[in-house]
Amino acid sequence: MTRVITGTRCSSHPAGCSVILSQPRRTPQLSGTRTVTTADRDQAAAGLTAALSSDSSCHGADAFSLVESSLADMIEEIHKELKEELVLETELGDLARYYFDGGGKAVRPCIALCVGHLANQHMGIVEKVGVVVRRQKMVAIVSEMIHTASLVHDDILDHAETRRGKESINVKWDIRRSTMGGDYILAVGSRLLSQVGDVEVVVILSQVLADLVQGEFQQLENKDDESERFEHYLSKSFNKTASLMAYSCRANAVLAGVSSSLVEQAFQYGRNIGIAFQLVDDLLDFIVSADQLGKPAGADLKLGLATAPVLFAAEKFPQLNEMIGRRFQTKGDVERAFQLVQESGGLEETRQLARKHCDAAILALEHFADSKYKAALVEMCDKVLNRMK
Ligand code: FPP
Ligand code: MG
Questions:
Q1: DSSP code of 56?
Q2: CB within 8 A of 161, min separation 6: which ones?
Q3: Farthest CA pair distance, the chain
Q4: Most-buried pick from 146, 237, 270, 321 (CB within 10 A)?
Q5: What is the domain range of residue 289?
């Protein structure tokens, strides 16, 4: 089977799933078209994993442990920054801090920090507390702030009741105050971003904000043409989830000063692990209990959303297409669709697609010098695939 890199559709999926190794429209660096076979990709990924496991310095690397000290004071630093901007003692501070409670997974900053270190080591930058590392940490912090601001707005839009097992912000306060809380986090994040002091990084991370909003808009749309639904879903997944990971990785590679082709590979790592992350998220909505998730299970169907498990299931059970078209609004749709997904094999297909994106993420690391960070980023793919919440 052959996959073509850049903007073409994947021949392996009848619904025209987006090309795993391709980059989205706004990253023109990889403009040439080259062809890789699945065998090439598997061989390269296997070779990379084997090379890493034979290097003792790369053994047993856990991304979260490697950047533990940076992550440990991240929440404290965010609290401090949020406080600094407040001119009045208002509730706004409580609102803005509410989701920065240490309960998040911190996957985004962890990946951004590790990619930064990966690129630094490639460039022979060894100091642990130098200017470059400090700037990369700011990028990681800003990525967490953008993510959290988007969750605040998302909970308002989704009328969420809980987030990470506690009352969601829109319930604890109200819609107006929560909206402003999210805006305030973004405002402080924007100031921090400018303090990184690199215009290219500001441009890179600003794109994430535009993508997040466009992803939400895409989620409101329904594609009447069934053949366009998978492509639409993957594009939305890039915008809503992968963009933040991809562009944070790109920003930290830029700050390390690696070549433009390695900057692109850092982006591809973030993009592919980001899409895998969203695919697994959509899978968990069907297989994990509400208690484990910290939010109701089956929530996507209830919101009218057709994610990968449903889209795969619709290939086996075409009756799902009508339900997707009416966004599961008719009484009994949610329960019926949930059942059909369980019987269809769509859950395993979703996991397989996530696995392919993880393979592509690993392949993107190929030309970086071996290091414990590289091993940790490879292992991070397993964590993403096997997570249960
Ligand atoms: C979670 O989606 C939401 C996002 C990943 C992005 C939401 C983006 C916006 C609301 C646009 C505005 C952006 C900013 C920066 C203010 P989900 O509902 O699928 O996940 P969930 O189950 O965790 O709620
Ligand atoms: Mg939501």
A1: G
A2: 167, 168, 171, 295, 296
A3: 62
A4: 270
A5: 3-386
The sign of the torsion formed by the CA atoms of 162, 168, 173, 174 equals negative
How far apart, in whole angstroms, are the C-alpha atoms of residue 211 and residue 236? 9
356 lines ligand 1 (CB under 6 A): no
Query: What CATH number is attached to the domain comprising 282?
Result: 1.10.600.10
Please tell me the residue having the least CA distance from ligand 1 atom 2: 154
Report whether pLDDT(168) > 50: yes
Model-level pTM? 0.85
pLDDT, one tens digit per residue, over 288-304 is: 865 665 656 688 999 89
Please tell me which residue, 2 or 228, carries the higher pLDDT value. Answer: 228
For ligand 1, say whether the CB of 189 is within 6 Å of any of its atoms. no
Sequence-distant (≥ 6) Cβ neighbours of residue 42 within 8 angstroms? 359
Relative to the alpha carbon of 158, which ligand is closest? 2
- Pocket of ligand 1, candidates 212, 219, 238, 285: which has the most ligand atoms within 8 Å of its Cβ, to mutate? 212
pLDDT at 224 over 90: no
> How does pLDDT run across 360-379, given as a tens digit for each residue?
999 999 999 999 999 999 99
Q: What is the pLDDT of residue 298?
A: 82
154 pocket-lining for ligand 1 (C-beta < 6 Å): yes
Alpha carbon distance 218, 50 (integer Å): 40
107-138 pLDDT, tens digit per residue, is 999 999 999 999 999 999 877 779 999 999 99
d(CA 179, CA 367): 43
Residue to mutate, 144, 145, 151, 307, ligand 1, most ligand atoms under 8 Å from C-beta: 151
* 370 CB within 6 A, ligand 1: no
Q: Which atom of ligand 1 is nearest to the CA of 146?
A: 15
Question: Which DSSP string do the residues of 328-373 spell out, in sequence order?
Answer: T-STTHHHHHHHHHHHHTHHHHHHHHHHHHHHHHHHTTTTSPP-HH
Q: Which ligand 1 atom minimizes the distance to the CA of 208?
A: 15
Nearest CA to ligand 1 atom 17: 154
Nearest to 307 by CA among 324, 332, 289: 324
CB 4 near ligand 1, within 6 Å:
no
Question: Which residues, in sequence order, are bridge partners of residue 166?
Answer: 163
Number of domain units in the chain: 1
